[in-house]
Structure formats: structure tokens, C-alpha cells
Design goal:
By secondary structure, this protein is of the alpha/beta class. About 50% of the residues lie in helices and about 15% in strands. It is globular. The relative contact order is 0.16.
Length: about 325
């Protein structure tokens, strides 16, 4: 089971769209994929399920029939027991499963800072709370014989994203082709390095019988998004920012992480996994209809989208599985 997050703390870089389309492509190739919606805004869940279904999930998440990520974590947050075993939902796509998000996940996030402090005090409650999400995902993934887990994360560097990234085996940086995204890379690299260094200290304090986070997310590569092409050429500000991405990923992320732990970096870490250009209004159509971008637009546009995500999927498998 390979756990992956597509991460950037800057909003508007298309993480959810990329996560869903990549997961669908991997599932179509025969991989068994589990999506985990860890963004309290539930954008990924809303992508795959109709509004009425999402409303029902959220209305019942606090009951004995709840099946959202909050339903599983609630006993830990409330201090009344261990995680609740939930069964992921089948989606409309073969081999693709979902643990739905929940707005109440913010309550779990509010406890995570305290759990982190308790870990430093060698308190069992801290380690159990910090690893609760991992336990939910591992248990569900094992039952379904999952090959790939994809976390969908919110655009921040808060305590919830910290434990998600530290649980992942791999992460991918999604970057919009604008100056704001380039500037955000510095914070991204430093934050990840700090989390990893802090977890090294914490993991040495953990009791032997407690399952803890792996703490070694490896960089698979990056994916530039939302750039515009006309006549085969980049246009506007994208023509200036896209060529800078490789250089900035190398200096702001790869180099920083390699100083923290060289094992997190490979020869391909600082390279592209693929590229996703600006698909314009087709993105909102795919979201509204709950279908991949390869099912939206003209036949040429559909083929173009399918090629883009198929390339990323192939490169992910190649870099993860060799």
C-alpha cells in the first residue's frame, strides 16, 4: 500500500482536481485506489458524490451509522475509545474507493497540537491521537487490498496536513505557473523539513508497542498546472514562470529535504511527473458532473486530458514501483 499526497499549502493549484483525475487513471489501469478526503471543506467528496449524498453523510456522521473520516476518529477525539472501523464507499469508477471527508474533521485538527505536545512528554494518548488517522486508513486499505492511497489535503501548513504528510510514503508538489506559487515553494520546503526533523525526535520517544507515523515522505516530483499554450508556445506570465519551476523546486524543496534526510530524495525528485495545462471551464463542468476531465469537451479535448493524466499515472507507478 503506497500512501501519497499531492501537496502545496497555496490554494488554487488544482490539488483536488489533479488527485481525482490521477486516481481515476490509476484505477482504470487496474490499480486498487483509496481516496481519503482530509480537507474539512470536503471538495473531493463533493466531486464524486451528489450533494444530497454528501448532505446525508454529514448529517449522519455523528451516529452509529456514520461512515465519514470523522465517524472513524470521533471516539479518539472524545476520549471514549479507539478508532471506529468504517467501510469505504465504492465510487462510480471500478477499483476506486473513498473515505468521505467531514467538516467536523476540524475538531480532530484542533486536538492535534495537544497530541503533538503529549508525544514530546512520552504520553501514550499523544501517540495514539497522532497515529489515529493512519490506523483508519491502514485498516480500511488492508481490507480492500489497496495499492495506492491518495490523501486530498487542504491548502495550509496546519497540524492536520503535518500528520498526513508524515504518514505518506510519497508526496507530489502541484504548482500553478505563477509567481505566487514559486514564492510559496520556500515555505513548503522549510515546513516539511521542520516536521520531519521534529518527528525524528518524537519517534525516538515512542513506546515500542505503539504504532507511529513513518515520518519519511519521499518527493516523487512536481506537476505544473494551469499554464496556457497558444500555437505550441507558452503565453503570458506562464512563459516566464514555467521554466523557473525546475530550478526553484530543486533549490527550495529538493535541496532543503536532502539536508534533512538524503533518503527522501531520488534522482528524479526534482523533475516533472507530467503537466496539466489550463482546461478552462471544462474543470467546473467535470466537477459539476462528477466525471474526469477526459469525459468533458470535444473528442480532441478529451483525448488531450486522457494523455496528460495517463502520463502522470505511468510516471507515478514507475517511480514508486520501479
Amino acid at each position: 500500500m503506497n500512501k501519497v499526497a499531492i501537496f502545496n499549502h497555496k490554494g488554487g493549484v488544482g490539488k483536488t482536481t489533479l488527485t481525482v483525475n490521477l486516481a481515476i487513471e490509476l484505477a482504470a489501469s487496474g490499480k486498487r485506489v483509496l481516496l481519503v478526503d482530509t480537507d474539512p471543506q470536503c471538495n473531493l467528496t463533493s466531486y464524486l458524490f451528489e450533494d444530497s449524498v454528501v448532505d446525508d453523510l454529514l448529517d449522519n456522521s455523528d451516529t452509529k451509522n456514520g461512515r465519514t473520516i470523522w465517524s472513524a476518529l470521533k471516539p479518539v477525539v472524545e476520549g471514549i475509545g479507539d478508532i471506529w472501523e468504517i467501510e469505504p464507499y465504492e465510487t462510480a469508477f471500478e477499483n476506486l474507493y473513498l473515505i468521505p471527508g467531514d467538516i467536523r474533521l476540524s475538531e480532530f485538527e484542533a486536538e492535534l497540537t495537544d497530541y503533538w505536545s503529549q508525544c514530546l512528554q512520552r504520553k501514550t494518548r499523544g501517540f495514539r491521537g497522532t497515529s489515529a488517522l493512519k490506523s483508519v486508513v491502514m485498516n480500511a486499505g488492508s481490507r480492500l487490498n489497496i495499492d495506492y492511497v491518495f490523501y486530498d489535503v487542504g491548502p495550509n501548513i496546519g497540524p492536520l496536513n503535518r500528520i498526513v504528510l508524515l504518514d505518506c510514503d510519497y508526496f507530489i508538489v502541484a504548482v500553478a505557473c505563477d509567481l505566487f506559487s514559486l514564492r510559496a515553494l520556500r515555505t513548503l520546503g522549510r515546513s516539511l523539513a521542520r516536521w520531519i526533523d521534529e518527528w525524528k525526535v518524537i519517534s525516538e520517544l515512542a513506546p515500542a508497542e505503539i504504532e507511529i507515523l513513518g515520518g519519511k515522505p519521499k518527493l516523487l516530483g512536481f506537476i505544473p498546472q494551469n499554464f496556457r499554450v497558444y500555437g505550441g508556445r507558452l503565453v503570458g506570465a506562464h512563459s516566464a514562470t514555467l521554466p523557473r519551476l525546475t530550478k526553484d523546486i530543486q533549490s527550495q524543496v529538493v535541496s532543503v529535504l536532502s539536508r534533512t534526510d538524503p533518503s527522501l530524495i531520488s534522482e528524479t525528485s526534482g523533475t516533472q511527473l507530467g503537466a496539466v495545462k489550463d482546461f478552462g471551464s471544462r474543470v467546473s463542468v467535470s466537477l459539476a458532473q462528477g466525471v474526469p476531465l477526459s469525459d468533458v469537451g470535444t473528442s480532441d479535448q478529451r483525448a488531450e486530458a486522457q494523455r496528460a493524466f495517463a502520463e502522470i499515472a505511468r510516471n507515478v507507478v514507475l517511480r514508486v514501483e520501479g
